[in-house]
Structure formats: structure tokens, C-alpha cells
Amino acid sequence: LDFSTPRYLYWLFCQFELITCSYLMEPWEKVLFYSFNLAMLGLLLYTTYVCLAFHASSAFQLLCSFLGNPRENSLSVVK
């Protein structure tokens, strides 16, 4: 089987239309449906990016505090 990239993407799109039954929709319904799905995907990706950046920053600060001056770490525990 010879699958070129555009043909494979078209095949994936057809699978998506079959799974979501969007091939039965009218064109204006498809526009609303795809717009909503793209907006939700964008919000999901943005939220994932923000949360991952926050958690990575927190983990990096924690790691730096563990690898920092041991005396400062023990003093911060005492305080």
C-alpha cells in the first residue's frame, strides 16, 4: 500500500467524519461543529502548556533548592 501524506490525511479526515457522523451535517452545521471542536482543542493545548510550564518551573525550583547550599536548606527547615 502506497500512502502519501495528503492521501493519508484525507483518509484520517474521512475516518473522523465517519466516527463523529459529521458527514450527515449540513455545511453550516459542520462549520459550527468544527469551530467548536477546534476551540476546545486550542483551550486544552493552551491549558496543558500553562500547567506544564508551571509544574516544570516548580519542580526546577525545588530541585535547585535541594542542590543549593545545604546549610540554607537546614536553616529553612528550622525556621
UniProtKB/TrEMBL annotation:
GO molecular function: serine C-palmitoyltransferase activity
Domain of life: Eukaryota
Subcellular location: Endoplasmic reticulum membrane
Membrane topology according to the record: Multi-pass membrane protein
Transmembrane segments: 31-52
GO terms for cellular component: endoplasmic reticulum membrane; serine palmitoyltransferase complex
Keyword match Endoplasmic reticulum: yes
Pathway: Sphingolipid metabolism; Lipid metabolism; sphingolipid metabolism
Keywords of this entry: Endoplasmic reticulum, Lipid metabolism, Membrane, Sphingolipid metabolism, Transmembrane, Transmembrane helix
Broad class of the protein's primary localization: endoplasmic reticulum
GO biological process: ceramide biosynthetic process; endoplasmic reticulum organization
InterPro entries reported in the protein's UniProt record: Ser_palmitoyltrfase_ssu-like
PANTHER family: SERINE PALMITOYLTRANSFERASE SMALL SUBUNIT B
Function: Component of the serine palmitoyltransferase multisubunit enzyme (SPT) that catalyzes the initial and rate-limiting step in sphingolipid biosynthesis by condensing L-serine and activated acyl-CoA (most commonly palmitoyl-CoA) to form long-chain bases. The SPT complex is composed of SPTLC1, SPTLC2 or SPTLC3 and SPTSSA or SPTSSB. Within this complex, the heterodimer consisting of SPTLC1 and SPTLC2/SPTLC3 forms the catalytic core. Within the SPT complex, SPTSSB stimulates the catalytic activity and plays a role in substrate specificity.
Family: Belongs to the SPTSS family. SPTSSB subfamily.
Assembly description: Component of the serine palmitoyltransferase (SPT) complex, which is composed of SPTLC1, SPTLC2 or SPTLC3 and SPTSSA or SPTSSB. The heterodimer consisting of SPTLC1 and SPTLC2/SPTLC3 forms the catalytic core of the enzyme, while SPTSSA or SPTSSB subunits determine substrate specificity. SPT also interacts with ORMDL proteins, especially ORMDL3, which negatively regulate SPT activity in the presence of ceramides.
Name of the protein in its database record: Serine palmitoyltransferase small subunit B
